[in-house]
């Protein structure tokens, strides 16, 4: 499937992974809708690149549908990329004082990273199903963001690991559900990606994580995530798979 001339939404498009993806797909000729809640950053991208920004709450059906409708107005809607962030509650299952982890620390993280991802997935799928099919009944692709924490969650990461594990778990099922409609579903599981969100802590994180990555011995870049998104869109035989983007890193227990 071609990127050029088709419209896409990038949920979380003002964040590190999202902005890099917006820029990569815009350069390839896509018609972009940045769907996020960071209005200042979204409008700055809109003004700089001449793309669309729609204030979008990933938890709200009407809000997500508004971003999708904007994409459909620009041209054939062919791809939904979701890399939104959220609160990552954590801590040990039982603290040093013997108290169990607070339930809301778990539910808030599950809601943000799993339930909202499902919300975007279901609404994007319904919209993609409305598009005219291309060759081989292809209508589009959904790309979600998991994490290698889904496989090797560290101590204190239980809610986040469970949420991202849910994204991994629903990926193949969603691909099977949507295959009759010609819609592919993929997920990317990043390892340690150095994004601007880390600010002054970026150098310290690089010094800690870089040597632990087998090759190349550094943290990943947002542009590498964006390049993988573009490759997934263009390769129609990638479906139902979660691709690790981690330099062969495997998280240690802590």
UniProtKB/TrEMBL annotation:
Q: Matching Pfam families, A to Z? A: adh_short
Any idea which UniProt keywords this protein has?
Answer: Oxidoreductase
Q: List the Gene3D superfamilies hit by this protein, alphabetically.
A: NAD(P)-binding Rossmann-like Domain
**Keyword Oxidoreductase on this protein?**
yes
Gene Ontology MF annotations: oxidoreductase activity
Q: Highest taxon of the source?
A: Bacteria
Protein family (similarity comment): Belongs to the short-chain dehydrogenases/reductases (SDR) family.
Under what name is this protein listed? NAD(P)-dependent dehydrogenase (Short-subunit alcohol dehydrogenase family)
Organism of origin: Williamsia limnetica
């Amino acid at each position: 499937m071609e990127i050029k001339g088709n419209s896409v939404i990038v949920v979380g498009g003002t964040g590190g992974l999202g902005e890099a993806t917006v820029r990569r797909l815009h350069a390839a000729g896509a018609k972009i809708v940045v769907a996020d809640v960071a209005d200042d950053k979204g409008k700055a991208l809109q003004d700089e690149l001449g793309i669309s920004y729609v204030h979008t709450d990933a938890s709200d059906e009407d809000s997500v549908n508004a971003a999708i409708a904007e994409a459909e107005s620009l041209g054939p809607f062919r791809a939904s990329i979701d890399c939104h962030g959220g609160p990552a509650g954590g801590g040990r299952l039982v603290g040093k004082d013997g108290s169990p982890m607070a339930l809301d620390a778990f539910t808030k993280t599950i809601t943000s990273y799993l339930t909202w991802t499902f919300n975007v997935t279901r609404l994007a799928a319904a919209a993609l199903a409305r598009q005219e099919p291309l060759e081989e009944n292809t209508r589009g692709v959904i790309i979600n963001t998991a994490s290698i924490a889904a496989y090797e969650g560290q101590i204190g990461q239980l809610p986040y690991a469970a949420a991202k594990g849910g994204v991994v778990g629903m990926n193949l099922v969603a691909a099977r559900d949507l295959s009759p409609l010609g819609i592919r579903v993929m997920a990317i599981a990043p390892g340690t990606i150095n994004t601007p969100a880390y600010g002054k802590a970026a150098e310290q994180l690089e010094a800690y994580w870089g040597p632990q990555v087998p090759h190349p011995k550094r943290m990943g870049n947002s542009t590498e995530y964006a390049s993988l998104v573009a490759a997934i869109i263009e390769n129609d035989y990638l479906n139902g798979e979660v691709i690790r983007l981690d330099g062969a890193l495997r998280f240690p227990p802590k």
